[in-house]
Amino acid sequence: MAEATDRALEREMRLNQLYLAIVSRYKDYIEEMEHISVAELPALVTPKNEMVMKKADDIKKGFGVYNYKINFYEASINAFYFVKNSIEDTALPLQFWLTPEETLTFGVGDVMDRNILLASLLIDLGNPSAKVFVCVKEGVRRVFTYYEFDGKAYALDFASGFKKFANRDEMIKSLEINDETTAYEFNDQIHTEIS
Q: Taking the domain 37-194, which CATH number applies?
């Protein structure tokens, strides 16, 4: 029995190595076909995807009767920690966009995939202001999700946690964006360049 299990595991490892070799061979072609312009990023935020809605419903169930005004802030924290702790931060060997459904299915994604999932969950939890924010400054890319609620702005960053700001403008000011910075935000409805 153990020998059969060992053979099955060895076969699976060989198949995974083969898949990686195939992907590596066609990496340039895959990345060329996978190219998404920044303006097309809103299509990746899918709050009405069945799996996203199911996960948002699971979060809502934790409150008994979910009331957006009373429960959203805590639900947003729960969604953040779900993604942070349950979705493994993984860099693929090629640039490949995952949908929130794929991120949930496989339990892995890079920082962009994880933030797109988080924004999708927050929108489905009732907050259409949730957006993925991308800031590239001095060659360093920072990606986080933020939303506005009860007159404040909340940044949810997997690297630095939760931050509360008086408003969106204060949040953007804290990023010290200058002429050399590329910054944009998006959700399922819009894409906006930040100047």
A: 3.10.620.30
